[in-house]
Amino acid sequence: MAHTYLTIQQTASGVYKDKGSKFLAFAEPVNSEEEIKQRLAFYRKQYYDARHICYAWMLGEERLLYRANDDGEPSGTAGKPILGQINSKQLTNILIVVVRYFGGILLGTGGLVVAYREAALDALNNASIVQRDVLLRRTLRFPYEKMNDMMRTLKDISAVILSQDYEDGQCVITCDIKKTYENRI
User: Which of 103, 118, 123, 149 counts the highest number of beta carbons within 10 A?
Assistant: First the structure.
């Protein structure tokens, strides 16, 4: 498992036009399927008058969780080319939505593949790609006497303390640490 992964810093957009059809693309950083569902609901509401709202997403540092959706376009002509752009840049924790306004002229399957691919690429070209550290959530239990040593170690490895508690003479700390430092605690 890698210690880092690539994603985008913030939402970016792109556009592609062909034969009167307009393809609006939006790339967003996301962290969960629940967040993806909320963002898709937003786009469906915001662009209620669009013919198709197609998308692809990928989650997880190992890039194993993903989906692609054609939203009524011929099978494989929308979601798959969008996912292909995510894969070409080796990104994760990302959602790309492409909204299509039909221009009255059929593009054919080849034209659709090109349009969705190019719209997604334009959004990614306008995005700021960043490298992030893989974080591991750990719950640490130790005697109160070790508190100073443990806090010094957590500070040295830039751990993010999420909660601290004391129960029955034991300290309990829940924190996020970089995978690089997992063997230091």
Answer: 123
